[in-house]
Amino acid sequence: MVVKQRKKRRLGSSDNSVVRRKVEHINHVWSYDFVMDQTENGRRLKFLPVLDEYTRECLTLEVARNMKAKDVKEVLEHLFIVRGVPEYIRSDNGSEFIADVIKAWLADIGVKTLYIEPGSPWENAYSESFNSRFRDEFLNREWFGSVFEARVLSGDWRLDYNHHRPHSSLDYMPPAAFAATCVQPGSAECKGCGRTFRSASRMDR
User: What's the CATH code, domain 29-197?
Assistant: First the structure.
């Protein structure tokens, strides 16, 4: 007699998963991950989308041949100034995200890190969902002659995604329109540089 096995539903086993550390408001949890592609000559392109999990906004979409921990830090520094400081940042355990220069700096500012379990991409579901859409709708349809061209085209795609793409999880509002309805947290002072980050500022003004 063959016993039929029941399928398991994987919700994320660590405390840092999207299920066990649920997002509650704007600037509560951001997430990021790298997406790889290439230019027409076969050279690597490395994209870095940063998302607000609550509003589903793509806060930035950086692209370069290579990005190291110091480059990630520069991207976050800019976002913290124009957008505000999140309470948490969720990511996998990529070397750029777990580097001491990132971890120590975020700790000094007061941003907590949520590192998912290795080999468990479903624990970073918001980034995985965005990256899948980004690849299907954009990367798989475009050829890039240069890094500059990739930056321009991906920037246009990001603005369209934020302002014109309705999300069922947002009552079919685009992310930017939904974010405009959210109650913004108060301003926060960066312990690292002393600047006051204005949470109400918007990337796309």
Answer: 3.30.420.10
User: What are the two backbone dihedrals, phi and then psi, of residue 187, each rounded to the nearest 5 degrees?
Assistant: -70, 155
The span from the CA of 86 to the CA of 89, in Å, is 7
pTM: 0.80
| Confidence label for 23 from pLDDT (cuts 50, 70 and 90) | confident
d(C-alpha 54, C-alpha 103), whole Å: 23
The beta-carbon contacts of 145-152 under 8 Å, at least 24 apart in sequence, are 145/39, 145/40, 146/39, 147/39, 147/45, 147/63, 147/64, 147/65, 150/37, 150/39, 150/45, 150/47, 150/63, 151/63
Q: List 49's β-bridge partners, or say none.
A: 61
Phi/psi of residue 137, nearest 5 degrees: -90, -20
Nearest to 37 by CA among 153, 116, 125: 153
pLDDT greater than 80 at residue 204: no
